[in-house]
Design a protein that fits this description.
With 465 residues, the chain is α/β, with parallel strands linked by helices. The protein has a domain of 220 residues: 3-Layer(aba) Sandwich (Rossmann fold). It has 19 helices and 15 strands. Helix 16 crosses helix 18. The longest helix is centred in the middle third of the chain and has 17 residues. The two termini are 27 Å apart. Its cofactor is pyridoxal 5'-phosphate. Pfam families: PALP (PF00291), THR4_C (PF24857), Thr_synth_N (PF14821). Keywords: Amino-acid biosynthesis, Lyase, Pyridoxal phosphate, Threonine biosynthesis. GO terms for molecular function: pyridoxal phosphate binding; threonine synthase activity.
Length: 465
């Protein structure tokens, strides 16, 4: 499998090099040169398989040439052996057509674990026997940071620097990052928004001086390996609801567009996805883009669903590229215009192509709370705010009544205890394995949201090439 950049000028790479690179040298994001496909018979053959075996069959085409199936199976077995539920991503039924896909049974209680536990092992495997040293630089709106830190803490040949917006993540999210005291873990709270943090990370990749001094890579969903791992649970859920003989719809609480783009990849591979519902909160750039073609930024509004408090969705570029006949030069020009003006109109081809598979919705705070209360009272399920936004959108999505709808449950409700308690009157408790989180020592540094301050901090602590 070979990978190309969405902006057309970076060299094609194999899976190993794409994983270690993260962002392409031309500022684009890597995607496979062509989408692999699974036949109906191959999809039907996934029924009854374990999560690990499903993962091997779905991901093997993407890792071909860099990992054989035995190596991939070994890494998946190790990664998913740390999950607290034997199904890894179990389905839960809410009513006659609505289901939850619980993605929070990993070590940091969020869906990011599904991909990042595996990505940490990919890094370790690909660095083994070399003198390479990785400097991971990431931005997090809450869950990516803790999942990435857990995945690489203490691993040789890796330093991780994770930026989060100061006082804009939940206490649980912050502590899951800042209480990891391994010497290769560095937490930075910036005095700005997640978008500020994400912009700085991309700038570091594109700064010739910085990128030449350190071997910088990404754990955010700009890294293709992360998205690839997320494709698996769409297949895992759909075959349990009757695929390929039956279509299935998914509602995805979305900020950076990575999780829902994985659903798009599953559809391109042949999974019968009826619709992908992009569920946003009041920070609704994706809803505006998909419903009216208006991809323009506004001011980030802090909410009870901080992982969705985003105005620039990095992975949206991958969809725009695929819907524009993979014309890297045209997409690069389109993205340059957006990066300079913070506004963009989707082309007719992009709007029409997206409408064939995607729907979108904006969920207001009271609607989020109502969805949490409904799930608690009618289905005896406690939801975190992000999942509740997904469920609210799913319950009013224009999807045929005979098609089951799966809402991706992206985080354990105890990560957002205050919001859950306000909506339901119930206080979720942390699982026993992290029950002492608030007794642990924290370590992090607060920096201004400037490129110079952050790069100077990293340069003092990172190992050069």
């Amino acid at each position: 499998m070979r990978y190309q950049s969405t902006r057309g000028t970076a060299p094609e790479l194999d899976f190993r090099d794409v994983t270690l690179a993260g962002l392409a040298k031309d500022g684009g994001l890597y995607v496979p040169v062509e989408w692999p496909s699974l036949s109906d018979a191959e999809i039907a053959g996934l029924a009854g398989l374990s999560y690990v075996e499903t993962a091997v069959r779905v991901m093997a085409p993407f890792t071909a040439g860099s990992l054989d199936e035995a190596e991939l199976r070994e890494l998946c077995t190790q990664a998913y052996g740390r999950f607290s539920h034997d199904a890894v991503t179990p389905l839960v039924q809410l009513d006659h057509r609505h289901f939850l896909l619980e993605l929070f049974h990993g070590p940091t209680l969020a869906f990011k674990d599904v991909a990042l536990q595996l990505l940490g092992l990919f890094f370790e495997r690909f660095l083994k026997g070399t003198d390479q040293h990785l400097t991971i630089v990431g931005a997090t709106s809450g869950d990516t940071g803790s999942a990435a830190i857990d995945a690489v803490a203490g691993r040789e040949g890796i330093d991780i620097f994770m930026l989060h917006p100061n006082k804009r993540v939940s206490d649980v999210q912050r502590r899951q990052m800042t209480t990891v005291l391994a010497p290769n873990v560095h937490n930075i709270a910036i005095e700005g928004s997640f978008d500020d943090a994400q912009a700085m990370v991309k700038a570091m990749f594109n700064d010739a001086g910085f990128a030449s001094r350190f071997q910088v890579t990404a754990v955010n969903s700009i890294n293709w390996a992360r998205l690839m791992a997320q494709v698996v649970y769409y297949f895992y859920a759909a075959v349990r609801l009757g695929a390929p003989a039956r279509q299935v719809a998914f509602s995805v609480p979305t900020g950076n567009f990575g999780d829902v783009f994985a659903g798009y990849v599953a559809a391109k591979m042949g999974l019968p996805v009826a619709k992908l519902v992009v569920a946003t909160n009041v920070n609704d750039i994706l809803h505006r883009a998909l419903s009216s073609g208006d991809y323009s930024t506004g001011t980030v509004t802090p909410t009870a669903a901080p992982s969705m408090d985003i105005q620039v969705s990095s992975n949206f570029e991958r969809l725009l590229f695929d819907l524009a006949n993979r014309d890297g030069a045209a997409l690069a020009e389109q993205m340059r215009g957006f990066e300079s003006s913070k506004a963009m109109r989707l082309t007719n081809a992009q709007q029409q192509g997206a409408a064939a598979l995607f729907a979108s919705d904006r969920v207001e705070p009271d609607e989020m709370s109502q969805a949490m209360a409904w799930a608690a009272s009618r289905a005896d399920e406690i939801l975190d705010p992000h999942t509740a936004i997904g469920l609210a959108a799913a319950r009013r999505a224009p999807i045929a009544a005979d098609i089951p709808i799966v809402t991706l449950a992206t985080a354990h409700p105890a990560k957002f205890g205050d919001a859950v308690e306000r909506a339901t009157g119930l206080r979720p408790t942390l699982p026993g394995r992290i029950g002492d989180l608030f007794d642990r020592e924290e370590r992090y540094d607060i920096l201004p949201a400037t490129f110079d301050a952050v790069t100077a901090y990293i340069a003092e602590r990172a190992k050069p090439r």
